[in-house]
Design a protein that fits this description.
- The protein is built from 16 helices and 15 strands.
- The protein has a seven-stranded mixed beta sheet with strand order 2-8-7-6-5-3-4, with helices on both faces.
- Bound molecules: pyridoxal-5'-phosphate (PLP).
- Pyridoxal-5'-phosphate binds next to helix 5.
């Protein structure tokens, strides 16, 4: 095979035009823009695996509730920043029914996506103590959260957890927090991008350290229940989605609606603050927010100044979706299981074409199939692999930007690729695997 499906010159010219010098360092949105431009110029539709956009329609219950709310006239009325009573009630019920954790409605607050939930959490949590402002990322992770801390001018540390699973986790955490600067710890579970899932023991370890050293754990549950090896989808019935909230009161939970309800466009999520933290006072907060209670600082300090609350209509949507889920009328995980099926098929195609799965084990168990998986190819760097795949009309993101220690991997997202496109993926990967590159 002498030519690539897309001209190498064309791809390289567009890379230059967009001033992307190192594709391995490009952000997700930069890759989206790049691929849009290449598709436009080449006329070749990509197999797009770069961005975690839901691949299915928004939950209709939410859409209907939102339309009704708009027709009632909520658009002209500022919403409560704390959240409308209906949504606060259903978030609290959801936490009880799907995590088996009690939390009062006060600490259940809608946010403009989990993006805003994280931003507000960083803003408030890392200002509790003058001398402790650092966030620790248990990586690999979602790169935008580090970008948020950069915009806030707040420090962070990180480590790749893959080599510190299970009993090794405690010592690693103790080593990192030893300098006494860590104020919060954040991770996603299931993990974006590797799809590893913490065990109850690991969560206990993190919680013990949080309790002992007054660290708040920000648990990002953007992919709630999507470890499909277990069925976490039945209200009030075990097994429950594993959560730090079972083991410590030092928690903030971020529960996005973007993936579980395919509601990314409406930018709504739940921020859940433990009762203890919600009512706790920290003198240092006063100079930033004019109040010393953490719950009040998050709502009337951070969220007020960021957006003065979350869109009124989408609060009604979230309330309605959660109510249906809580009442057992809507089995939300049944609708997103399609990602598991696709991951299984896609991984097989990659492996058949000489790729390897980078994060391939969950301690001693097989990794779950879900929204993301990670790939490498014959020791190529992430930079080179991503660059070369573009010539074959395939896009992903580099693990380099996720805090992964692996410099040879990419994250692939299963969401937007259609099952009908899988033969084309197989075809392109076969050509890729047989192609001899002179230089990249
Ligand atoms: C781990 C993680 N956290 C947060 C988000 C953002 O969620 P939202 O769309 O609710 O802002 C994402 C989106 O991909 C994510 O993967």
């Amino acid at each position: 095979m002498k030519t690539t499906p897309i001209s190498t010159n064309l791809v390289d010219t567009i890379l230059k035009e967009l001033q992307i010098e190192k594709i391995g360092k490009a952000s997700i949105r930069q890759i989206v823009k790049l691929v849009n431009e290449i598709e436009k110029a080449s006329g070749v539709p990509f197999i797009r695996m770069e961005m975690g956009v839901p691949g299915i329609s928004a939950t209709q219950i939410g859409v209907d509730a939102e339309i009704k709310a708009l027709e009632r006239g909520v658009a002209s009325i500022y919403p409560s920043i704390e959240g409308i009573p209906e949504v606060k009630k259903e978030i609290s019920r959801f936490v009880k029914l799907f995590l088996d954790v009690d939390v009062s409605e006060n600490g259940c607050v809608p946010t403009v996506g989990s993006m805003q939930g994280a931003y507000a959490s960083f803003l408030a949590l890392n200002r509790r103590h003058k001398d402790r402002q650092t966030t620790l990322f248990i990586d690999p992770g979602f790169p935008v959260q580090k970008a948020q801390l950069k915009t806030l001018g707040l420090p962070f540390k990180s480590f790749d957890v893959y080599n510190y699973r299970n009993e090794k986790l405690k010592d690693k955490l103790l080593e990192i927090i030893a300098d006494g600067t860590i104020s919060s710890i954040i991770y996603s579970n299931p993990n974006n991008p590797s799809w590893i899932c913490f065990t109850e023991n690991e969560l206990k370890t993190i919680a013990e350290i949080a309790n002992k050293y007054d660290i708040v754990v920000i648990e990002d549950l953007a992919y709630f229940g999507m470890d499909f090896r277990e069925d976490y989808g039945n209200p009030g019935v075990a097994p429950y989605q594993p959560s730090i909230a079972k083991y410590t009161d030092n928690y903030f939970l971020l529960i996005s609606s973007s993936k579980v309800f395919s509601y990314a466009g409406q930018r709504i999520a739940s921020l859940v603050i433990s009762d203890k933290l919600f009512n706790q006072k920290f003198e240092n907060l006063s100079s930033y927010f004019g109040m010393d209670s953490l719950g009040q600082a998050v709502i009337y300090g951070a969220l007020y100044t960021l957006s003065s609350g979350t869109s009124h209509a989408s609060q009604f949507a979230l309330a309605a979706m959660l109510k249906a889920v809580n009442n057992g009328e809507y089995k939300f995980l049944d609708y997103v299981k399609v990602y598991k099926e696709k991951a299984k098929l896609m991984k097989k195609i990659f492996v058949e074409n000489a790729f390897s799965i980078v994060y391939d084990k969950d301690i001693d168990k097989e990794l779950a199939d879900g929204f993301y998986f990670t790939i490498s190819y014959k020791g190529l760097s992430s930079e080179d692999l991503l660059h070369r795949l573009l010539y074959f009309g395939i896009s992903a993101i580099s693990l380099d930007i996720t805090g992964s220690e692996r410099k040879d991997g990419l994250r692939a997202c299963t969401s937007t690729i259609k099952v009908e496109q899988l033969p084309e993926l197989a075809n392109r990967l076969k050509i890729f695997n047989n192609y001899t590159f002179e230089k990249c």
